[in-house]
């Protein structure tokens, strides 16, 4: 598979950056949780509780595997988690959360903070069952022997309210058998939406949406298939691969897909795609965006977009600005995006709460410094 998703697995942590950016006029940003370990995707259960995936910090330095791109080896540990957060931030941001599932596999360069961790990456609810996707990044054969749970990396888990979980599907199997975009085998499941009768996963390594069918009974693993392959991104001087990082269902029942673009992450070339439920048709819904890592619809049909870089300006302008993030709003029906909050630091996920507020994971590569922000308009 092509290598545009290197951002999602090997970016160095910019720990020296400021904690949260100042909100623009008429917007209030409040930190409701601190101390999280590489927080990524975020979502609400039907009862209004907020959950966050923590990708973890890998392990102490052994066992390790070579990275798929030049960089530091990735080392195994069981430091990933699914975490419930009090949206009021009580009793304090440092203690407003509790891990409901712990011991999930994680790989990261060591020492902690020297590389982008892979582990639990996103969560989506169908009923009170949480569906948690775990990332990987690379050939899934490299998972073998890393640790007791290493083959859960790249898989989709179903988590029950009591914290017990089982494996629904190994998403990496689809890349091995189908390799929808061609090239070397490379799979990195990064976003998930749970829908009645199926789940849809954005695989940033395969450059594709992968559909997971209904689960079998007992230990039977659900089948997967390629639903849609993202088209290349036009950039100055050529094209880059499209790296789907996020998928949600829109008010119209179609799937909406946010893309990261192959390095150096050109400014303003990332798109949101609108894909028919069966994957047979697609169109570009929104343009002019940069390095998208998550999207979410509001109740009014507005689409909220998280960007993780300021973007490279061709031919020799500013660099990609990795980690300089922002939250944007696309009006209902499409149109130009407006900035809601600027100055975020490696933001990773967004969800719209039942209270109408926006919830964003910030410092998504920080091993112990991750945050959840509550964003309201005044």
Architecture blueprint of SSEs:
Blueprint: H1 7-10, E1 27-37, E2 39-44, E3 50-54, E4 64-65, E5 74-85, E6 97-108, E7 120-126, E8 129-134, E9 155-159, E10 165-170, H2 172-178, E11 189-195, E12 198-203, E13 208-212, E14 224-229, E15 233-235, E16 238-240, E17 242-249, E18 255-261, E19 270-275, E20 282-289, E21 292-297, E22 303-309, E23 322-330, E24 338-345, E25 349-352, E26 358-362, E27 367-377
Antiparallel strand pairs: 1-27, 2-3, 3-5, 4-5, 5-6, 7-8, 8-9, 9-10, 11-12, 12-13, 13-14, 15-16, 17-18, 18-19, 19-20, 21-22, 22-23, 23-24, 25-26, 26-27
Spell out the key features of this protein.
378 residues, disordered N terminus, mainly beta, five-stranded antiparallel β-sheet, Neuraminidase, four-stranded antiparallel β-sheet, 27 strands
**What is the string of helix and strand elements?**
HEEEEEEEEEEHEEEEEEEEEEEEEEEEE
Q: How many strand elements?
A: 27
Largest sheet: 5 strands, antiparallel
CATH class: Mainly Beta
Helicity range? under 10%
Written overview of the protein:
By secondary structure, this protein is mainly β. The chain has a single domain, classed as TolB, C-terminal domain (Neuraminidase). It is 3% helix and 48% strand. The chain contains two helices and 27 strands. The longest helix has 7 residues. It is globular.
A few lines on this structure:
With 378 residues, this protein is an all-beta fold. The chain has helices at residues 7-10, 172-178, and strands spanning 27-37, 39-44, 50-54, 64-65, 74-85, 97-108, 120-126, 129-134, 155-159, 165-170, 189-195, 198-203, 208-212, 224-229, 233-235, 238-240, 242-249, 255-261, 270-275, 282-289, 292-297, 303-309, 322-330, 338-345, 349-352, 358-362, 367-377.
């Amino acid at each position: 598979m092509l290598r545009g998703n290197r951002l999602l697995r090997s970016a160095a942590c910019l720990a020296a950056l400021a904690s949260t950016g100042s909100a623009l006029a008429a917007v209030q940003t409040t930190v409701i949780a601190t101390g999280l370990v590489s927080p990524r995707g975020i979502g609400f259960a039907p009862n209004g509780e907020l959950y966050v995936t923590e990708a973890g910090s890998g392990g102490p330095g052994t066992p390790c595997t070579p990275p798929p791109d030049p960089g530091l080896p990735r080392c195994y540990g069981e430091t990933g988690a699914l975490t419930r957060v009090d949206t009021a931030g009580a009793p304090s941001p440092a203690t407003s959360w509790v891990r409901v599932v712990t011991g999930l596999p994680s790989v990261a360069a060591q020492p902690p903070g020297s590389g982008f961790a892979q582990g639990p990456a996103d969560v989506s609810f169908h009923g009170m069952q949480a569906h948690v996707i775990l990332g990987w990044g690379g050939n899934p054969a490299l998972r073998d022997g890393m640790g007791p749970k290493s083959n859960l990396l790249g898989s989709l888990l179903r988590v029950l309210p009591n914290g017990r979980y089982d494996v629904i599907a190994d998403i990496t199997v689809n890349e091995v058998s189908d390799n929808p975009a061609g090239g070397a085998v490379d799979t990195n499941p990064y976003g998930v939406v749970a829908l009645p009768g199926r789940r849809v996963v954005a695989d940033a390594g395969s450059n594709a949406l992968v559909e997971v069918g209904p689960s079998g009974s007992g230990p039977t693993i659900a089948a997967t298939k390629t639903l849609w392959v993202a088209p290349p991104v036009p950039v100055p001087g050529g094209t880059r691969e499209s790296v789907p990082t996020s998928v949600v269902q829109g008010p119209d029942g179609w799937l909406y897909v946010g893309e990261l673009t192959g390095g150096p992450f050109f400014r303003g070339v990332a798109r949101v795609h609108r894909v028919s439920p069966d994957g047979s048709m697609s169109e570009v819904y929104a343009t002019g965006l940069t390095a998208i890592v998550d999207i979410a619809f509001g109740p009014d049909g507005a689409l909220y977009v998280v960007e993780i870089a300021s973007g490279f300006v061709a031919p020799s302008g500013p660099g990609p600005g990795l980690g300089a993030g922002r939250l944007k709003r696309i009006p209902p029906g499409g149109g130009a995006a407006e900035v809601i909050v600027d100055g975020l630091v490696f933001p990773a996920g967004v969800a719209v709460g039942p209270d109408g507020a926006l919830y964003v994971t910030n410092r998504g590569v920080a091993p112990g410094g991750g945050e959840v922000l509550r964003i309201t308009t005044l």
